[in-house]
Amino acid sequence: MEKTFKNLIKADYPYLCGSKLLLAVSGGVDSVVLAHLCKLAKLDFSMAHCNFNLRGDESDGDEKFVVDLADSLEVDVYTESFDTLNFAENHGVSVQMAARDLRYEWFSELSSSAQFEYTLTAHHANDNLETFLINLIRGTGPEGLTGIKNERDNIVRPLLGFSRSEIESFAREKKYKWREDSSNASDKYMRNKIRHQIIPVMEEINPQLLDSFAKTQQHLQESLDLVEDYMSLLYPKLVEKDKYGYTLDIEFLKKVPNQKQILYQLLKSFGFTEWDDVYDLIDAQTGKMVLSDTHRLIKDRKKLLLTEHNEKIGNKEYHLEKEEDLVMIPGMGSFHISEVEKMGQTSPSCIYVPERKLKFPLVIRKWKKGDFFYPFGMKGKKKLSDFFKDEKFSLPEKEHTWILCSGDEIVWIINHRADNRFAVEKSDSKILKICIT
Amino acid sequence: MEKTFKNLIKADYPYLCGSKLLLAVSGGVDSVVLAHLCKLAKLDFSMAHCNFNLRGDESDGDEKFVVDLADSLEVDVYTESFDTLNFAENHGVSVQMAARDLRYEWFSELSSSAQFEYTLTAHHANDNLETFLINLIRGTGPEGLTGIKNERDNIVRPLLGFSRSEIESFAREKKYKWREDSSNASDKYMRNKIRHQIIPVMEEINPQLLDSFAKTQQHLQESLDLVEDYMSLLYPKLVEKDKYGYTLDIEFLKKVPNQKQILYQLLKSFGFTEWDDVYDLIDAQTGKMVLSDTHRLIKDRKKLLLTEHNEKIGNKEYHLEKEEDLVMIPGMGSFHISEVEKMGQTSPSCIYVPERKLKFPLVIRKWKKGDFFYPFGMKGKKKLSDFFKDEKFSLPEKEHTWILCSGDEIVWIINHRADNRFAVEKSDSKILKICIT
Fold first, then answer.
1. Where, by residue number, does ATP bind (chains A, B) (predicted)?
2. Do A52 and A177 belong to one domain?
3. Is B333 annotated as a binding residue?
């Protein structure tokens, strides 16, 4: 066993030799063993310890232990103290989640400021099985069953192939000192039940449980890798990205089997929870939508449109004074007003208006139901909703449409069409050019 | 709860009404409840009980109980007695597997002889979770985690959505009588540990365990459905079927990601166990092969050839006497010998040979290393191995090649090429026509 541990880094992680490493050390047996292994392998590493202040003096004792360990191993150590309970409360997450977020955020900061190439953690095979069982018991998607990844995002977990008892035996044999592991303190109740009441029974049935489990999990991961491959294949046929978000082609979706599951795969990272409502959109009427905390999915004819919630583009109004020559409007651009001697070339982003017809300040606002205007170059008036229909605007396009008003009258559907009533006449001497860039 | 049970069949399985049904009844609470529900729903059903003779008098008691139950419900009952232990030993399977195989085989026989349209079993949600955990503990592929299918192969399991305790409560409320469930007797040790020691702890952590688990398992099944879809998409590009088996196109395989996993998906039902050896074939030399109990996978240039083991085509020899006019050879066809006055048109499946040159009985055998012949229409002799090479024979083609010999000399590479030495000369009067059909 010792031999396996001793050669582990050089045999399986040769790229760690010569790299600048940050080692997460809680003070528990796993991270202590990994620290010693790193020292034996003569790696260039510093240690980092999070004090989550969850167990008073004990937490401080852990911190002191780790600082002393770093001293005896002659490596640098970083420590940081967190008000974990407060963070959890403020962010509405569990204490466990809070600790994890704080830890990884701090590691990431340390890594960029001190230029560490990899972060090492001491997760082992039992952690993997315990996490699997926690997720299984709580209920989870397939991703929750596939386990901690060995190497991902520059985080390396060299002990994932070893069990807790193997690590402990090795530590005893080498007479290492350690503190009882204080990590996962917040889900201790659940994790301890699993660790002490469930896994031992499983091991009575199959003494090779951890090995079998590692293979089971690998097979599962491999299957899910194929799902990813399949999605990569479908993606360019199904999804188009534009400036407002993503457009999903329902007609193509309907040609492939298991549409719902494909929709789930495409949308799973956008925070939706009401999946039946999402699936119902496939056959819903135009305009139906489903919301997540961050995104919105809208049925629009033969498409599904996925856009971010954009609260900035609410019902805000902006005013344009005559003497202002530049007004910035968030999410739209900048307005320029200038007096010109004669009309130049018109374009969707520029209009010419006789000053005498305008009531200042002009108002810039979103369009609303019932709005109508007199499209330039046409006879009579038209509802904006009909104009959008004729021009085949998508829902997000409609939503991102701003109008320029003089009093109650529409002067310009910005970026799209001017109004006849405000057309320049031969007799007009004072002409304003209004442009958006 | 009662309401749910009472309406279950009509609401969720309307197609069962009016169909002729076979209900598997062990005498345990689950199958007893299902029997009563079928009766309440006025279904047209008979009962079937397997006596596996695994617990002596108790087994006979179960049988008597089921016969009495059928009597009281006024439905037909079939019973069958099995020597399960013997079957398990003879077939080298576990007692549990033996019981399952015997049960489903008998149900299938009953269904075809008595024309039952569906077989109903009383599997419930706990069975599903227990089976999941058994497979998890033993180690399994993803399929072992997805659970019992509700409706498959005309077997319907209406109670899969209910827990054991819900079923028991309902049975107590209705004052039904039942026998303690004798099924799964052989894996009782393992199943009981899971049932009494593991699942209760999981339920302490999450009282809604069975519901969460059902969703987890459904998500997993949906992901695996996508793997199937992906494979269906790749299959026609990757695999070609011919008369010897299947040909896998390695060049195409190398173009897609996760080749090994795809190879696994393609080959998983052919009994291979040495998967690393299988994967190594991708880059192996022509001729390398991996065996399963039933199949053989051979590297052949840019292909992998999958064929059944065919022991019939071993080293057997067949003899052809002059006076026989028809000889059947298993796996090849029938030989006809006839005397003709003059040569007709030659073809790969017919040769003309002067009788005087033949030593009877002629021998029909597989080719072997070192064989050579004098190809008709060419000068000199040639090794059979070189002939195969020039003709671009695949490995299975070579293996399925038979030769006809006169003494030590090859007369005919059957179906392919005759030998010069046995060509008919002008002076020959007695000509034999030998054909294979």
1. 26-31
2. yes
3. no
